[in-house]
Amino acid sequence: MTLQSTALLHLLQLCSPSLPVGAYSYSQGLEAAMVSGHVHDEASARAWIVGMLEEVVARFEAPVTWRLLQAFAARDDQAVQYWNALFIASRDSAEFRAETIQMGYSLGKLIAELKADDTESEVLIQLLQNQTELPFPTALAAAAVALDVPAEEALLGMLFSWAENQVLACVKSVPLGQVSGQRLLLSLRPGLEAAAETARTLADDELSNWSPGLSLLSMQHEVQYSRLYRS
Description:
Blueprint: H1 3-15, H2 30-36, H3 42-73, H4 77-90, H5 94-114, H6 122-129, H7 136-146, H8 151-173, H9 178-187, H10 189-201, H11 212-222
Helix pairs in contact: 1-8, 3-4, 3-7, 3-8, 3-10, 5-7, 8-9, 8-10
């Protein structure tokens, strides 16, 4: 098996819905958008996901993940600390903060167990353990570097995994049919590629997750009477 094939298999494992980090239990504000009526069919679901992708994920979460990938590859503890802290500080509701910390903790623990006997990963694991709190992008970047997944592919994998989770939430809760969900996911491909390009090229001072409407929906979701998702 070639190195390229091995990296692909590792990437598929990291992006799999079966990865035990609990991603399926979060909607990242999407459930609140459904309750409020913003998302109610395939067209509105696509509009919501594309808006999130272009205005939030491509301009903040993906660029931070990209920088963390570079920091772990360089074994740069200071850079890891900086971007790790910045991402945590950017979570502006209790749900969003709890989501990324829980998923990051789960993935970090998994990395430590899977790579426990790998001396080449000791420095990466130590970098993770140096963090007081571990958000998901930090743990994902460390896992990708530990598994020798190229940074560009890891970034695309992160974006696809995010989009897939959003689509699955729509399939289950709008609800949409399975074919409708797959059509929606397939239509997002150009946007995901553009988001990856944006993430790689934005300057540090251009990063922004300014989305007050999403923040308000998340806060409303915290006190929502009945809900399926944790965010």
